[in-house]
Backbone:
C-alpha cells in the first residue's frame, strides 16, 4: 500500500507542475496562484521531516509557494 501512496504523490506533483507550467506560459495569474498554492499543499507532505510540525504550517508553506510563483511571473515580465 505504501507504493500506491508514493505513486499518488508523484502523480500529483508532476501533474500539478505540468499544469502550472502551462499557466505560467499563458500568464493566467489566477491559475498561477491556484496552481502554486496546490503544489505547496501537496509538497508540504514531502517536507514534513525537514520542517517543524506546526498546526498551520502547510498553509504558510503553500502561501509562500504561491507568492514565489507570482513574483517569478512578474519578474519575468519585467525582464
Residues:
Amino acid at each position: 500500500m505504501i507504493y500506491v501512496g508514493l505513486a499518488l504523490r508523484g502523480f500529483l506533483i508532476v501533474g500539478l507542475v505540468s499544469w502550472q507550467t502551462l499557466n505560467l506560459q499563458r500568464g493566467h495569474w489566477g491559475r498561477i496562484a491556484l496552481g502554486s498554492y496546490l503544489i505547496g499543499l501537496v509538497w508540504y507532505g514531502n517536507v514534513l521531516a525537514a520542517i517543524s510540525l506546526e498546526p498551520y504550517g502547510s498553509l504558510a508553506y503553500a502561501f509562500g509557494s504561491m507568492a514565489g510563483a507570482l513574483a517569478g511571473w512578474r519578474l519575468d515580465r519585467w525582464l
The longest helix spans residues 2-26. The mean pLDDT is 79. Residues 27-79 form one domain. The radius of gyration is 14 Å.
